[in-house]
Every structure is written in structure tokens, then in C-alpha cells.
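== Sequence entry ==
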Amino acid sequence: MPEVKGQRRDYRSPVREEAARRTRRAVVAAATTLFTERGYTGASLRDVAELAGVARPTAAAVFGSKPALLRQVLDEALAGDDEPVPVARRPWFAPVWEAAHPVDVLRAYSEVCLVIARRAGRLFEVTRRAADESAEIGQLWVTLVQNRRAGAEMVVRKVRETGPLRRDLDLDRAIDALWVLNDPAHYMALVVERGWSDAEFTAWLTTQMTAALLDASVP
């Protein structure tokens, strides 16, 4: 087919695409370090660019704005990488779906909470503290809170598939209870501040989740 005069071809350069990916990863890594160490307000895009080894306009252009960069940093911390795979479909979430008993579901979910808190607990705190700075960051915090509750709902429904909830709980109250317990702030307080081991934390969390959702008669 002859080329139409003036028609632009869509050229794709693997080399250019890989360079763009490396730049994105460098900017996200630098922002993660600086947001964690200095907080959101203490880390400028200029600082991020300098640590990433790119020009400031490049760092700004990659994600468009500092709030958008924080959102990307959080997304990758929660998921573990930049692949477009939902958290609930990650391999480390699979034991929750594979469990056949309510206590096993909650035990597996406590391990999920540990994985997420280790990677994103400090960033959750950074976002919470910066939520009053702008409407965009405030909305980002609201989204994080809502997503935690959505995650709690998925797990409660899985628990209910494998056995009964506590007789005095309706679905909403059960979701609320698990939503409170899946907060990374618990990890930050007990492990980071108080020096608990990861094993101690997950054992405690499993106990709390089990007591909150299941009757004492459940083995």
C-alpha cells in the first residue's frame, strides 16, 4: 500500500522506551527515599531529580506533578513493582484466596498486611501528614483509606465463604473491624517503634483479626 503523502508513521524505539522506563524507575526510587527520609514537604522535585541523576524538568515531566509522583510511589510500594497487576492478584496475596478455613484466611491476610506495611507503612504516614497541604494530597489519603476498606471487604467475604462470622456481627461491622486492623500504622507502632519482630506482629494481628471476626468456638 503506497504511503499517503504527509501521513506520519508511528515509530517505536525499544531503546528509547527502555531509557524512559529507567528514568521513571530512577525518579520513583529517588522520590521514595526522599519522601521517606524528609517527608512530602521536605522533598522538592529538584531534590528528587538530583538524586535520580536527571534534570529537574525531566523529573517533573515524567509524572506531571509532585502529588502525582507521590501517588506513583505509593502504588509501586503497595504492589511491589510497576506492573499493572492489582494487589489482590499478586502471588503474595494468593494464600488468602487458597485458604479453606476462616482462621487460615486471616492468618494469610496478616502476612499480606505485613508485606504491605513493610513496603508502604512509612509512605502512608508521609501521606497522612501531608493530607492537609493540598486538596490533591487530601484526596489521595482518602483513596488510600477507601482502598484499605475495599481490601478488608474482599477478605471478609472470603472468610464468610469458608465459615460463619461471629453471630453478633453483620457484614458491615465485620468489614469495619478488619479495616481498622489492616492499618499499616499498627506495624509502624509495634515493629518500627516498639521493636517487635515480624513473627510477633503477624501472630498478634492474626489473634486480633480472629477475635474480631470469629466466634471463640472456631478452632
